[in-house]
């Protein structure tokens, strides 16, 4: 009986190993030359280059308290969001997001204990320049509709860039099916918080800013609207992420005195450290391919 049991176990293990080998060598696996330790190589389809995980940005998102606006970590009636300083026209805190409308606002958080060097902060958000018809009219009239700013203030300098407009972030992209939409200049845009969050989950409306941290090891990140343009200026702020880029960076993000909009990039594919494509990030190390062809490393707890 023992012999028969052992043979059965060996057979089951052999079948499992074969199935795993077959899955790992299916068409869903990136064409890697070799696999070395973990998170070793990911092929960039745009350039054909091989990126080593050790060369990818380190994810420091865990340094941001409540970076995804957990519904249990805030209270709209108290105008409170755990980990964040909130000033002004906060009008919603739900669905892993917070929203502001009909007034100026500032949302910020100070992060400490960072290494000196260059970082990139990203946040899913947009700025609607008034109501839907107002943003359309303001854009067509040639008005400056980039009033909302993404900022990062460090002991080196104050860094700032424009947050994309609602119609700007919707142009040329496919919105998630089934969400509520409006149109601005013929462009379908998400209508309301729930629709916006669905877009964020699909990787849309991602704004980013590069900045430098000095020996002080701190940065205050946030978004702000210092002036309004219409009767119903509006923004929904979603998840934040923070990446360490190293001690050398060829091109640094725009500083506050010469602010220009940073072209937004969005995640398009996710992979395990061994190169297997997955639908969405999983706990542990994830390799993320962005819409501009770049590759990032993310550690999800």
Question: In brief, what are we looking at here?
Answer:
With 301 residues, the chain is an alpha+beta fold.
CATH superfamily of the largest domain: Galactose-binding domain-like
Q: In the CATH scheme, what's the topology name of the largest domain?
A: Jelly Rolls
- Residue share in helix: 10-25%
SSE sequence, one letter per element:
HEEEEEEEEHEEHEEHEEEEEEE
Q: What's the gyration radius in Å?
A: 22 Å
The largest sheet, given as strand count, sense and whether it forms a barrel, is:
9 strands, antiparallel
Assign the CATH class of the largest domain: Mainly Beta
The total of helices stands at 4
Tally the structural domains.
2
The fraction of residues assigned to DSSP E strands is 35-45%
- Mean pLDDT across all amino acids: 80
**Class by helix and strand content?**
alpha+beta
Shape category: globular
CATH architecture tag of the largest domain: Sandwich
Low-confidence stretches: 2-54, 252-263
Number of strands: 19
Amino- and carboxy-terminal Cα gap = 44 Å
Tell me what you see in this structure:
This protein is an alpha+beta fold and 301 residues long. The chain has two domains: 29-58 and 265-301, no CATH class; 60-264, Galactose-binding domain-like (Jelly Rolls), CATH 2.60.120.260. It has four helices and 19 strands. The protein is globular and about 45 Å long. The relative contact order is 0.20.
